[in-house]
Description:
Blueprint (H helix, E strand, L loop, with lengths): L1 H10 L1 H14 L6 H33 L5 H16 L8 H131 L4 H8 L9 H4 L1 H27 L6 H34 L9 H11 L6 H13 L16 H14 L6 E3 L13 E3 L10 E6 L2 E3 L2 E4 L1 E5 L6 H9 L10 H12 L2 H8 L1
Helix pairs in contact: 2-3, 8-9, 8-12, 9-10, 9-11, 9-12, 11-12
Amino acid sequence: MADTLRRLANTSSFSVLQDKLESWHRDYHVISCDQNLNRCCELIELTAKIQGQLFAILNLTAAEGGHYAGVDTLKMRLLPWLGTCFSMARPSVTDDTSLQLIQESAEKDRRIRELSASHDCDMQKMETQLCSTRLQLDSVRAELDDAQKELDETKSKSATTLLATEDEILQMKADLRSAHEEVEIYKRKMDALDDYERQIHLLRDEVSYLNTEKVMLQERLVRSRSPSPMPRLSCSSSPIRSESPTRAQLTNSSRHARLVSRFSDLYAVERLEAQTLLRRYIDDLEMVQKIIFIAVVESFKTAKLAYRQFKLRVRKTLSPSHFGPESLEDAAVDYIVRNLDLYDVQASVNDVINAMNTNPRISFPPEVDFALISSLIRETCRMAFAMQTLDPALDLAFASDGELYSDNKYRRSYDSEFTAPLVMYHVWPALIEGNTSIVKGEAVTRRGAPSSRSRSRSRSASPVRARSLSPTRSLAFKNNRSLSPERLTASRL
Length: 493
């Protein structure tokens, strides 16, 4: 019994019943009649459950007291209460009270109807507002659709305009590129014109110098024909024949350092510019590097030939009037050092381009010309011409595809196979002084490169080799043999 009573106390059934009564009292005028009846039935069911538990406790308590314990209490309290609960309840209200109750009920019904009418009116107003809101929403949606259509049309027009603008930009870029190329061509022409003007000015100075020298020689010739004693002439001419080095000999070391530095600058600057320019028309990097290498080699060959021809003309010019202590060879070299601007570099550039056009090792698109790298060829020709005035002269090392790689002359390029012993092709020639390498060149070494012996054997029987005996090269060969300084000096002696 004590456990049952404890469970009943822990469940707080009466507090739950009290909470439900208070909630029903608050919501009685708000909820409907069916809901009020449901809550009343719920309270009756909860009360019946509590009464059932209390009757079970009563039964257990009475059983614990024995047969006669608690009998008086049951007779005095429980039985009379049960009799009054199950007996017929007689009405305890008068007629006036029932009429009042009926009036109150009618008043409540009237209030309920008014509340229902006001609720229906509010619902109609809300439906009207909802309809108007829906109409507004439809209009906003229509406006949004129109705005979306206008946006799509604007996008399509913008895309068309953008495409047209891109085409115009590409056309303008092409025009700008062509304009830059034309400007470069005009600059080259202006440079050539400046060279011509400089050469004309130098030739005029040379003519005036020669005229002055001619007058001096004529005066000396008149003096020599006069009956003056020879010892006086020898005494007067002895100070002129004093031993002194020429200007070329004095500046040989400085010019040597400057030209070696210029050779390195050609590799670092002009070569890269020419390579970038050629890559616009040729995708093969190997062919571009071969073109630049052959251009440098041909420039040296052409410049050396031009130097020998120029020195021959200077010797012929100075030989009738030469009487100084230095040799005719030194006087000619000194004159060339003083007048390097007289070198016709444009003719050498044209010869180099013609030689490259007939070279079978390189190819070039037909719509462009090797004149694109004429600036590199011009600078190389000037440098090679000036190198011939040094003592000893600087030259390029002999190079052929398939030769054995030498660390003394070359360094490998970044894309080479560093274990390959043979040279596939050359990127830049090596500069030598006699048999000593001064500036290393650059070469590409790869496995499978054909050796120089196999290439020479295969080319010796090919008809292309016959083009090496062109009139220009045969003239160069003859000049190499006939214009040697030692032989020329010996012949004149």
